[in-house]
Write a structure and sequence with these properties.
Distance between the termini: 18 Å
Largest sheet: none
Structural class: mainly alpha
Shape: elongated
Length: 155
């Protein structure tokens, strides 16, 4: 992978001028608390599943704290980062995300094994849809063959 490809595959670090979020954004920690509440209700976690659920939520909270710290530091340092520091920061975030998923999987797997068929069906639907957001490439995809050839020639 080239540096140019790596840079184009990810969004630039948000700044006050480029951030799409409001200035008083919700932290990852706040977001995960809302997600935990929504998941508990949607998955209909039973009293018998609460201990497993507590393990899942602790991993979610720990992961959110880690990612919040890394992304907050990245945003604060973005104006003065060199290209190499930027790539290192992005690498740290990506590695933390992978490590967080690695920790999450066994906790969720144990909970999933205890679920009823109806709960599993709901979880399957939720997780399938979670990662199906439009990508930047799809969002900017030309709508007609004429504009497609124009877009291709400008790349």
């Amino acid at each position: 992978i080239t540096a140019r490809a790596a840079a184009s595959d990810r969004a630039p670090a948000p700044t006050a001028a480029t951030s799409r979020r409001p200035a008083a954004k919700t932290s990852r920690i706040d977001n995960v608390e809302a997600r935990i509440t929504m998941l508990h209700a949607t998955l209909h976690i039973t009293p018998a599943q609460e201990e497993l659920w507590t393990t899942v939520t602790q991993v979610m909270r720990d992961n959110a704290k880690t990612m919040d710290a890394l992304t907050t530091a990245r945003v604060a340092q973005a104006p003065t980062m060199t290209a190499v520091e930027d790539l290192k920061s992005y690498t740290a975030i990506t590695q933390a995300h992978a490590e967080g998923l690695t920790k999450f999987l066994p906790a969720f797997e144990a909970l999933y094994a205890s679920m009823s068929d109806a709960q599993k069906a709901e979880a399957n639907t939720m997780f399938r849809g979670h990662h199906r957001r439009p990508t930047a490439a799809k969002a900017t995809k030309p709508k007609s063959p004429a504009s497609a050839s124009t877009a291709a020639s400008t790349r």
